[in-house]
Design brief:
The chain has 613 residues and is of the alpha/beta class. The protein folds into 3 domains: 16-333, ABC transporter transmembrane region fold (Up-down Bundle), CATH 1.20.1560.10; 343-430 and 512-613, 3-Layer(aba) Sandwich (Rossmann fold), CATH 3.40.50; 436-509, Rossmann fold (3-Layer(aba) Sandwich). It has helices at residues 16-28, 31-62, 75-120, 123-128, 131-173, 176-223, 225-230, 234-286, 292-333, 394-401, 424-429, 445-450, 458-467, 471-476, 494-508, 524-538, 573-579, 582-612, and strands at residues 355-365, 368-378, 383-388, 409-414, 417-418, 431-434, 512-516, 542-546, 558-563, 566-571. It has a 6-stranded mixed beta sheet, with helices on both faces. A 4-stranded antiparallel beta sheet has the order 2-1-4-5, covered by helices on one side. Helix 15 packs parallel to helix 16. It is elongated and about 120 Å long.
Length: 613
């Protein structure tokens, strides 16, 4: 069974700290800003802690004294109180300011690394993947980076730093019981939050999996909109989507229900702790052990601690969820790259452009071998065609030449250089392809042609379009080369898309060409026009043609006939016909099909003429 790459599997052995540790190197490049942010954080919390102390002095100064009934307004203390409030906000905003570039750059760097890594993964991975779920995982992962940094730096670390400072102040100025009770409450609150949140995490994981599944089904149905309409399966697709949403709904309800339990428990712990400490403080005021200002200070400390501590429960919960999302994105980064360059790989040097397959075996899976001892040569500047039934391994030859897969045995050489010994960029730069199913980007015609050489000038694009015999068609469009082609190029006909693909390949100007059944899906008229353009492009270039219609390869230097992954016949067109073997049978069969199709075409033409009259 093939591995399912559609939904990355989270590593159950990876801890949250390991996930954070993986993130740390991206932050290290901004260590100066992080250090400055931590300094501002300390200043902000010290100013915040100083507020209740100043408030205590204000209250004590305003408290009536029997020996002196006159109250002097403590103006300096009030100004200090207001200033400390402002400094708390100022230092917090300065912290946010210096951290902004560090967090945003980290998001950018990681998103780019994931994007690059996904392009290094083999075709095997991308054939197995589900685009909707994959894009959702990357989106959630990059978003979680900002949330993790905000929660850690702006909430969790500052809160525990403030708890430590307040505990020390209570320990120095009051009975140890105040500090001990405060620490016990914080500890109970933290342990309760940690245990319950870890228990709730599985609901979040299930929500993510169900959401990715639903997103995948929705994108798949929308991309294949026409197919859905052709078969009238709107309700069927809606049921598939709703089924995935149903799983998400169940997990979401469990998550919300457990959240209510978490919030009630946290509220109960804080309410009990606050009551105990205020009762202790009230008794101390009554006994004259502390002043009214001390009571106000203790109350202010507790409010300053417990409000963020109460919020800390939500922060920890969201931090845990963000770590789950980030871990799934890191799982993508750990997806092994199947096709690797050798450390000493050198650029491919294409002189003549001879391509040779030497005793090539290939299997997608150990139990499914596709090619068996395939050996042939495409001489420099010549055309070699490969024909055969579907599943005989024809298109696999092209994928192996691009090194989308690694040969199991044997080798493929270009001008005597094993393609495994050269850099992938230089290898793929030397090869151009016009595939059977041309998929264009949802952009302009000009953009899609320029994709063959991104730095090409407009004149180069027009020249390539003229050589592909599509320039006049483009010029006739209202927006010309700025015409949008739609999702996967669906606004263009099959022949128009093929001509864009030919123009793109001409612009790339490769030494080696591959035509992978480039005309098999076209009508006879379009096929002849496209075939003419392909022949012009292939002139004096080493060309591998994977053909469905034998009439398109009669001029090939050599034709290879493949069956079940083996070359069973080879030679020029006339020699193969004279051999009266498999190729001859295929040729006769296609002639019969053409003869059957011709009367139908003539009948359609006659019908059209009668309709005109």
């Amino acid at each position: 069974m093939k591995p399912d790459h559609s939904v990355p599997r989270s590593d159950p052995t990876r801890s949250d700290w390991q996930t954070i540790h993986t993130l740390f190197p991206y932050l290290w490049s901004y260590r100066g800003r992080i250090l400055a942010g931590l300094v501002f954080l300390i200043f902000a919390k010290l100013a915040n802690v100083a507020v209740p102390i100043t408030l205590k002095k204000v209250v004590d100064a305003l408290s009536p004294d029997l020996s002196n009934p006159y109250i002097v307004l403590p103006l300096s203390l009030l100004i200090a109180y207001g200033s400390l409030r402002f400094l708390t906000i100022l230092f917090n905003e300065l912290r946010n300011l210096v951290f902004a570039r560090a967090s945003e750059h980290t998001i950018r760097a990681l998103a780019l690394r994931v994007f690059d890594h996904l392009h290094t993964l083999s075709l095997r991975f991308h054939l197995d993947r589900q685009t909707g779920g994959l894009s959702r995982d990357v989106e959630r992962g990059t978003r979680s980076i900002s949330l993790i940094m905000r929660y850690l730096v702006f909430n969790i670390i500052p809160t525990f730093f403030e708890i430590a400072v307040v505990t020390v102040i209570l320990l120095i100025n009051f009975r140890p019981a105040f500090a001990i009770v405060t620490l016990i409450i914080v500890a109970v609150y933290s342990v309760f939050t940690l245990v319950v949140t870890n228990w709730r995490t599985r609901f979040r994981v299930e929500m993510n999996r169900s959401e990715s599944s639903a997103n995948t089904k929705a994108i798949d149905a929308l991309i294949n909109y026409e197919t859905v309409k052709y078969f009238g399966n709107e309700q069927f697709e809606a049921q598939r989507y709703d089924q995935a949403l149903s799983h998400w709904e169940d997990a979401s309800i469990k998550s919300l229900t457990s959240l209510a339990f978490l919030n009630v428990g946290q509220g109960a712990i804080i309410a009990i702790g606050l009551t105990i400490l205020l009762v202790m403080a009230g008794q101390s005021v009554s006994s004259g052990e502390i002043s009214l200002g001390d009571f106000v200070m203790i109350n202010a400390f507790l409010i300053q601690l417990y409000i963020p501590l109460n919020f800390l429960g939500s922060v920890f919960r969201e931090l845990k969820h963000s770590l789950v999302d980030l871990q799934r994105m890191f799982d993508l980064l750990e997806e092994p790259t199947e096709i690797m360059e050798k450390p000493d790989a050198r650029p491919l040097v294409v002189d003549k452009g001879e391509v040779r397959y030497e005793h090539v075996d290939f299997a997608y899976n150990p139990d499914r071998q596709i090619l068996f001892d395939v050996t042939f040569t495409i001489p420099a500047g010549k055309k070699v065609a490969v024909v055969g039934t579907s599943g005989s391994g024809k298109s696999t030859l092209a994928r192996l030449l691009f090194r989308f897969y690694e040969v199991t045995n044997g080798c493929i050489c270009i001008d005597g250089q094993d393609i495994r010994d050269v850099t992938l960029d230089s290898l793929r730069a030397a090869i151009g392809i016009v595939p059977q199913d041309t998929v264009l980007f949802n952009n302009t015609i000009g953009y899609n042609i320029r994709y063959g050489k991104p730095d090409a000038s407009d004149e180069d694009i027009i020249r390539a379009a003229k050589l592909a015999h599509i320039h006049h068609f483009i010029e006739a469009l209202p927006r010309g080369y700025d015409t949008m082609v739609g999702e996967r190029g669906l606004k263009l006909s099959g022949g128009e898309k093929q001509r864009v693909a030919i123009a793109r390949t001409i612009l790339k100007n490769p030494k080696i060409l591959i035509f992978d059944e480039a005309t098999s899906a076209l009508d006879s008229h379009s096929e002849k026009a496209i075939q003419k353009a392909l022949n012009e492009v292939a002139a004096n270039r080493t060309t591998l043609v994977i053909a469905h219609r034998l009439s398109t390869v009669t001029d090939a230097h050599e034709i290879l006939v493949m069956e079940h992954g083996r070359i069973v016949e080879r030679g020029p067109h006339r020699a193969l016909l004279a051999a009266n073997g498999i190729y001859t049978q295929m040729w006769k069969l296609q002639l019969e099909e053409n003869n059957l199709a011709a009367p139908e075409s003539d009948q359609a033409s006659e019908t059209a003429k009668e309709a005109d009259h």
